Amino acid sequence: MALVGPPPLLSKHPFAVLLSDLRDERSASVPFPPGETRFSLARTRRFADEPLPMLLEAYERFGPIFTLRLFHGNVVFMLGPEANHYVTVSHASNFIWREGHFRDLIGLMGDGLLTIDGEFHRRSRLIMLPAFHREHIAASVDVIVEETTRALDQFTVGGVVDLYAATRRLALRVAMRALFGLDPDGERARAIDAAGLFEQALSFYASEYLLRVFRGRLSPWARLQAAARKLDTLIYSEIAERRATGRRGQDILSLLLDAEDEDGNTLSDQQIRDEVMTLLFAGHDTTTSTVSFMFYELARHPEIVARLLVEQDEQLAGRQPTASQLISGDLVELELVLDETLRKYPPAWVGPRRAIEAFEFEGRTVPARAFVNYCSWASHHLPDVFPEPESFRPERFTPEARAKLPKGAYVPFGGGSRTCVGMRFGQLEVRTIATVILSRFALSLPDDFRLQIRQMPTISPRAGLPMVVGPRPAAPVAGLSAAA
Ligand code: HEM
Q: Which uninterrupted H or E stretch holds 96?
C-alpha cells in the first residue's frame, strides 16, 4: 500500500482559493499586527520587484512583526533572530508550509518534502535522510569536480561567460547524476533541456501577481505546467526502468523505490516523482544562485580573492581538494566567504507559512489562518545584528564572531525540523565549484554591469551574471588594500 499522503488542497481553482483566503481574513478573531493593510497594486508590484528595502522600511516603522497587504490579502512578516527562532523552532508546530504564500509551487513539485507538513513530512524526511549522510555525499565530490571541469572547459580566456546560466546547467547535471543516478547525456535527458524547462517553470514567479491567477493557454501557469509535463516524462521513465530492471545504486531514487515504513507502506510512482522533482529544483536553483553571488562579490573584492589563492596554494599545492577537505570546510577562508555570501544573499530568502492557531508575538496578535513569513534576507540585513549589512565582510563568520550571534540570527538554511535537508550537499557543491573555478580562472565583471536581483522564487541576478574570463594569477596580487 502507498504511504498515506498529505491532505488534499482545499481547491485547485485560483479564484476559489482567493475567496477562501478572504473569508479566512474576515473571520479573524484577533487583529493583525499593524502595518500597511490597504489594498495597493503599487505595493504588490514593488514587493515583487524589491522586497528587501520594503521589508527593512517596514521593520523600521513597525518593529519585528508587521502586516503588508500584498495583492488580495494580508501577509504577516516576522523578522530578526527571535522571530526566526519562533517560527522555525520554538513554535514550528503552529505553522504549515502547504497553504502558505508559495503554495503554487505544488503545481510543479507536487507533494515533495518542501510542500508537505505533519506526519507525512516527518516520515518522508526519515526516508531521505540517509542519502544526505556524510559518507554518501562525500561520494559526490568526483562527480562535481568532473562536471565543473567539463563546464569550465567551455570558458575561454578573454571571453565573457554568463556564470549564472553556466552554473545552472552545471548544478542540474550534478543533481541528476549525484542525487538520482540519471545520465544527463542519455537519450531521454538529451531530448529535453532540463535547465531551460526549470527556468520556464519558475518564471511563473517572475510574472505579475495578477497574471498568476489565470489558468488559460498562454498564462504563466500554463507555461509552468507545460515545463513540468516534459520534466515528468524524464522522471517517470526512469522510475519505470528502475522498477522493471531492479537496477539500484547509491542514489536517492533507489532509496525512494525501496522505502518502506514500519507498517510496510511504500511510495507510489507519483510520490517518488514529487520527491525527485522537489530535490532537482531545490538541489540546483539554490546552489546556482550562491555560486553566482559569491563570484559577483569576489570580483569586487580582489583582496579577498588574494587570500583565497594563498590558501589554495598552501593547502592544495596544485592538487584537487580531497572529499574530506571539502566536506569539513577545511579551506577556512573559502568557508568564511561562503557564509558571508549566504548572509547577504540567502537564495531561499523567505520561509512561507500559514498559522494554524492564533498566536501572540512581541505583544502583537496574529489570527488563525494568517499567512506568516519569516525572512532570512531581511533578518540578515538588520544593522543591530549585522553592522553595515551591505558590506561584504567574511570575517563576520570567524568562530569568535559567530559565537556572539544571537540564536536565530543567521538562518540561510532555515531551522528546526524543516532545516534544509540538502544543506551539506549544497555547501559541498558550492565549495567544490568555487575551488575548481579559482584554481583555473580569474573572473571579473564588465565595467557597465550593475547587479539587479529578481525572486523566482529564489533570489538570483536578474539578467544573469556576465563575467570576463582571465587566467588565474600565478601568485596572489600583493599589496592590495582592503576594499569597502
Ligand atoms: C546553498 C544551498 C541551499 C540553500 C541556501 C538552501 C536553503 C534552504 C532553506 C532556507 C530551506 C527551508 C525553507 C523554509 O523554511 O521554508 C530549505 C529546505 C529544503 N531544501 Fe535547501 N538549500 C540549499 C540546497 C539544497 C540542496 C542541494 C537540496 C537537495 C539536494 C535542498 C533541498 C531542500 C529540501 C528538500 C528542503 C525542504 C526540507 C523540509 O521541509 O523538510 N536544498 N533549503
A: strand 95-96
Q: How far is CA 463 from the centre of its chain?
A: 18
Within 8 A by CB and 6+ apart from 314, the residues are none
Q: Please enumerate in sequence order all residues whose Cβ is within 8 A of that of 301, keeping only pairs 6 or more positions apart, or say none.
A: 392, 483
Q: For the stretch 45-79, what's the b/e string if a residue is b when 16 or more beta carbons lie within 10 angstroms of its beta carbon?
A: eebbeebbebbbebbeebbbbbbbbbbbbbbbbbb
Burial group, residue 160, by CB count within 10 angstroms (0-12, 13-18, 19+): middle
pTM beyond 0.90, yes or no: yes
Closest CA to 180 of 91, 281, 63: 281
Q: How far is the CA of 282 from the centre of ligand 1 (A)?
A: 6
User: Could you give all domains of the chain from N- to C-terminal order, each with its CATH number?
Assistant: 14-471 (1.10.630.10)
List phi, psi (to 5°) of 282: -65, -30
Cell, residue 203 = 518564471
Cβ of residue 351 lying under 6 Å from some atom of ligand 1 = yes
Question: What's the pLDDT tens digit per position in 317-372?
Answer: 888 888 888 888 889 999 999 999 999 999 999 999 999 999 999 999 999 999 99
Q: Which residues, 6+ apart, have CB-to-CB distance to 43 below 8 Å?
A: 36, 54, 68, 69, 70
Cell 482567493, residue located? 18
> Are the C-beta atoms of 408 and 84 separated by less than 8 Å?
yes
Query: What is the distance in A from the centroid of ligand 1 to the CA of 285?
Result: 10
- Looking only at the bridges linking them, the beta strands covering 73-78 and 453-455 are unpaired
Q: Which of 105, 279, 286, 372 to mutate to test the pocket of ligand 1 (most atoms within 8 A of CB)?
A: 286
> How many other CB atoms are there within 10 angstroms of residue 258's CB atom?
12
Please say whether the beta carbons of 284 and 198 come within 8 A: yes
Assigned C-alpha cell, 164: 549564472
**For the segment 172-206, what is each residue's pLDDT rounded down to a tens digit?**
999 999 888 888 888 888 878 888 888 888 888 88
Residue that the C-alpha cell 523505490 belongs to = 257
Beta carbons of 70 and 43 less than 8 angstroms apart: yes
* Torsion over CA: 287, 288, 293, 299 (sign): positive
Cβ of 426 below 6 Å from ligand 1:
yes
Give the distance between the most distant pair of CA atoms in the chain.
67
Separation CA 446–CA 467 (nearest Å): 6
Residue 353 alpha carbon to ligand 1 centre in Å: 15
Q: How far, in Å, from the CA of 113 to the mean position of ligand 1?
A: 10
Indicate if ligand 1 lies below 6 Å from the C-beta of 109.
Answer: no
- Tell whether ligand 1 has an atom less than 6 A from the beta carbon of residue 71: no
| Count of all residues that appear for the chain in the document | 484
